[in-house]
Write a structure and sequence with these properties.
single chain; 221 residues; alpha+beta; 7-stranded antiparallel β-sheet; 6 helices; 7 strands; 47% helix; globular
Length: 221
């Protein structure tokens, strides 16, 4: 085979390989998007169902308790909802402006240490309006990098039967499945923010009270 023919054939093979890889990657993204849409539809269904009952997610998780603008008042009860089998947990509380309240979600890593995953902002109508990562001082958890957060987040599951209205827990489970791509981006954005902070301030940001939310993504159903 002469050089010109070899280069032409090599180019065709390379182009074909690149195209196949691109198609495969796009296929994965499409499948992920379709799967996400399925779980987002489940979230919408829960919200619609509760609305028809004259209730909503925040009313349900507040467990008929008084609305307290206080970070130390946890709903549905002190300590939140914990799944001892999976190590995942959640609670709701109220202390930030521009939202009605928010869920905090946690995992336990391989050493049994508590790791904060995401914050889910809610409006008064019981609809999610944003997803965020927070600084370490906010929750006092263990710092881990984005790749660990992605892995823990992908496996998030709290048994819905652990709360009297299982839809509250199902909602949070569905958030992790329906917004997987957005969460992974938030974790990466958080790590970049931390690196930038260290490069400019020559110290870690974890106790800097001027910074609560490190990455944020608005969501609209």
């Amino acid at each position: 085979m002469n050089r010109r023919k070899f280069l032409r054939n090599s180019g065709i093979i390379a182009a074909s390989t690149f195209l196949s890889s691109r198609i495969a990657a796009n296929s994965i993204l499409v499948k992920t998007a379709l799967l996400s849409n399925k779980f987002i539809e489940k979230i919408i269904s829960i919200i619609r169902e509760m609305k028809n009952e004259g209730s909503n997610l925040v009313k349900k998780v507040m467990n008929e308790k008084k609305y307290e603008y206080d970070p130390y008042t946890h709903y549905p009860y002190e300590g939140g909802i914990k799944d001892e089998l999976t190590g995942y947990q959640l609670f709701f509380h109220i202390h930030r402006q521009n939202e009605y309240g928010h869920f905090h979600t946690f995992a336990k890593d391989e050493n049994g240490d508590l790791v904060h995953l995401i914050l889910v902002s809610m409006n008064k109508e019981g609809e999610p309006i944003g997803l965020a990562t927070v600084n370490r001082w906010v929750t006092g958890d263990k710092y881990v990098q984005a790749d660990v957060l992605k892995s823990l987040s992908e496996k998030y599951f709290v048994d819905p039967k652990l709360y009297k209205d299982k839809r509250v827990v199902e909602f949070i489970n569905y958030v992790f499945k329906g917004y997987k791509l957005e969460l992974n981006q938030l974790f990466e954005d958080r790590d970049r923010w931390i690196i930038n902070y260290v490069n400019h301030n020559f110290r870690e940001p974890f106790e800097d009270r001027d910074y609560e939310v490190l990455s944020y993504k608005q969501i609209v159903l």
